[in-house]
Amino acid sequence: MTVGPRGRPPFPAYRSAPTVFWCEQAWLPDGIASGVRIDVADGRITGVTPGAPPTGVVLGGLTLPGFANGHSHAFHRALRGRTHHERGTFWTWRERMYALASRLDPDTYYRLARGVYAEMVLGGYTSVGEFHYLHHAPGGKPYADPNAMGEALRQAAADAGIRLTLLDTCYLAGGIGVEPDEVQRRFSDGSASAWATRVAALKEGELFRVGAAIHSVRAVPAAELSLVDSPRVVHVHLSEQRAENGQCQAAYGRTPTELLDEHGVLTDRLVAVHATHLTASDIDRLSGARACFCPTTERDLGDGIGPARALRDAGVRLSIGSDSNAVVDAFEETRALELDDRLASEERGRFSAEELLEAGTDHAAIGWAEVGALAEGAGADFVTVGLDSVRTAGIEPSGVVFAASGADVRHVVVAGRGVVRDGAHLLIERPETLLAKEIEALWQS
Question: What is the DSSP string of 331-372?
Fold first, then answer.
């Protein structure tokens, strides 16, 4: 066995040659096991052997499947710590977000997103679904490459070593029956057919896939909802705000969920993002679809607590996302499903640790169905967490979803390639410095 610095095997930094990893403990589909050998070739797990002697790259602590960030707006990261000075609403927060959006171009977006995606990997995520609606230049004029902003995100994710699903978003109106304003014209292609033509030019790659998104029933007229489609997944902001529900009822006489159902959008490829303010009928209609909760953003914006347990009981598969990136921490987001539901129901034990891990690692929600388990044939994405920090010392291994934080992530492997080793990003040096520089420059521009 080749030995690296301090007697350790060299970490396979961003390469795809056949590799052997040995996990002190690993969370397998049938439970936690010790001494687990994981064989990897061509980005896939080719063998999983519990009770094996140490060999290859040794991963101390607990190794889990990589987490999936089902919903992100990367540029919102520049709002973190900058929206607390005035008492306001979601809508006043949105105005500051629009001001930020107006300052971005492909170059600045690329540089900012590199740091954001690096932070995600450090926080335990190995894939991200980017809900992307910042398409065009100011005033709505297309760039020379109409997908320049999406390509900036693709390159940023490649640099950071994370899987990216570009959830290219159709955004046509400034509200129901309202034309887009000056900033919103950057988001709009004019029609769903023009949106589809632009998206068709995007080409997938090894760690890059393309999905679709309906921004909301406020931003896509009812007659065009059915035209927004993808063979992978279709995401939609759904009933995030009570005001959205009220506007939809006033315009169409239906809840947003009922409107989507009427237009054939409720399929097994649909992912309802937030799904906070639903009726009992809405929950039944969503059976067979997915819902992506973003608890840290939902509490940051004062959105409310969605019916996570009721949706799961109705056959809706749950996933999680960092949304505005006010917090980027896969463990914090995942356990919040349970903790928020405790607050809403005034009961403990709403989800088992296994159900939480299933939600946190649902890569299929963003089009990576082969990723999300430490099993033969699965994509080789895994995260190793230290069990010796002040947060995790003395816990049962399965309690990691309740006790750990992103600060406890020691190693991250994406498609068999080492991206984080000993808590340090191997591809981007000092992401925190990069983020500080780019965010400060945006707000001074």
Answer: HHHHHHHHHHHHHHHT-S-SS-HHHHHHHHT-GGGGT-TT-S
